Amino acid sequence: MDKVMRLTTERGVVLFSKSSCCLCYAVKILFQELGVTPTIHEIDQDPEGREMERALMRLGCKAPVPAVFIGGKLVGSTNEVMSLHLGGGLIPLLRPYQAFC
Amino acid sequence: MDFPSTQFVPSRMMGTYEPIHQIGMWGENFKSIGNPSISASVIVEVDNKLENESETASHEMPVPSCKHDQEASKPFDKIQRRLAQNREAARKSRLRKKAYVQQLESSRLKLIQLEKELEQAREQGLYIGRGLEAGHLGFSGVVNPGIAAFEMEYKHWMQVQNRQLGELRTALNAQISDIELRIVVENGMSHYFELFRMKSTVAKADVFYVMSGTWKTSAERFFSWIGGFRPSELLKVLVAQLDPLTDQQIFEVCNLKQSCQQAEDALSQGMEKLQETVSATLAAGQLGQGTYFPQVAMAMEKLEALVCFVNQADHLRQETLQQMSHILTTRQAARGLLALGEYIQRLQDLSTLWATHPREPA
């Protein structure tokens, strides 16, 4: 839990993912399209992965991954990210972190 | 085979030596006939000719005279022979008819049996593949009750949908208040959300069923993207129908279209990744060894993610509808729903027309 909390307070866009998860991959692609490079933590490759999974569930994520935090605040999973984006609320949140080469 | 009708010309018209030759040829014809249908026509011809003959001959028979003795006996013999052959042919015909009717009877019984079995299977909640309704006799096997339930619900859903479209049409033409119109719009929206709920349930039962779109018509399937329509495609259709839009609305719709497109791209690429993953898992190790169960089991695990994708795609559709209803006025939303519904109806009609349209042979 500590690790997760520490990681989420990192500035910027944080994505908890699993390397085998294709839905997580879709979220990564979306951020890429929006010009954002999130900090990705593949919890299946982390020795404390199980703990992190439990911590994420306790924070309110229905599925542990993908879990998106922006500026330390939990945005949610794919559903929430998509809804936010279609509603026009995602890009304003990402603006400080967008970098278009 | 040659059946010249000249053979059956009444012998009276021919020379005295002709008749015997004639009967001989008939006999040969009967022997060489392998095809029952051809012999039937021969018999009919013989019957007709013989009937004519026997009618006229019967007038002649009771009037023998010394002068016509020689001539009278010859037609008499021939007539007797013809009558005998006629009786024989008729007997054979009756036997064939009997055999045919027996075959029909047994086929009919078999059909009744099959219908009974089908009815029983339906009552038990099992479902025989939609291919049967499409006219193909390929049983796709017994599928789970979740699909049977969905099929029934979807049929009902379509009926309600068509009724609601009628209500929308009436409401838009009538002078009803915005509040009342809003209710009609909300009903329409809820109806779509209901469909997404239904799809979510059946996706858990069999995600491939949802992906294949078997429950939709063929033209609808043509546009299929992860188990349904592409939201951005529907937006394009909608927006064209909604003129005039305010500048603010145009701006918001543009943004919606763009974000929709981006979300679709992300999901599409995720799907590709899933395909690669499943393929790689299945192909792991050596192909051709014979033992492959571990690979198949692992691939099944990966495939579970497909349910998530179908749900995400439907979520995208739902969100798009929601956002549009926020951007549009009540009246515009009503027109939008009607336009959408009618567009889908046209697709369904296209499917029907395509199926029944005679095509030129290749």
TrEMBL record, chain A:
Keywords: Cytoplasm, Redox-active center. Its main location: cytoplasm. PROSITE patterns: GLUTAREDOXIN_2. Residues 13-75 form the Glutaredoxin domain. GO terms for cellular component: cytoplasm. The keyword DNA-binding does not apply. Pfam families: Glutaredoxin (PF00462). Gene3D superfamilies: Glutaredoxin. It is found in: Cytoplasm. It comes from the Eukaryota. Belongs to the glutaredoxin family. CC-type subfamily. This is Glutaredoxin domain-containing protein.
UniProtKB/TrEMBL annotation, chain B:
Residues 97-124 form a coiled coil. InterPro entries: bZIP, bZIP_sf, TGA_domain. Keywords: Activator, Coiled coil, DNA-binding, Nucleus, Transcription, Transcription regulation. It comes from the Eukaryota. The keyword Nucleus applies. GO terms for cellular component: nucleus. Residues 51-73 are annotated as: Disordered. The keyword Transcription applies. Residues 147-357 form the DOG1 domain. Residues 76-120 form the BZIP domain. Its main location: nucleus. Gene3D superfamilies: 1.20.5.170. One of its GO terms (biological process) is DNA-templated transcription. Belongs to the bZIP family. This is DOG1 domain-containing protein. It comes from Gossypium mustelinum. The lineage of its organism: Eukaryota, Viridiplantae, Streptophyta, Embryophyta, Tracheophyta.
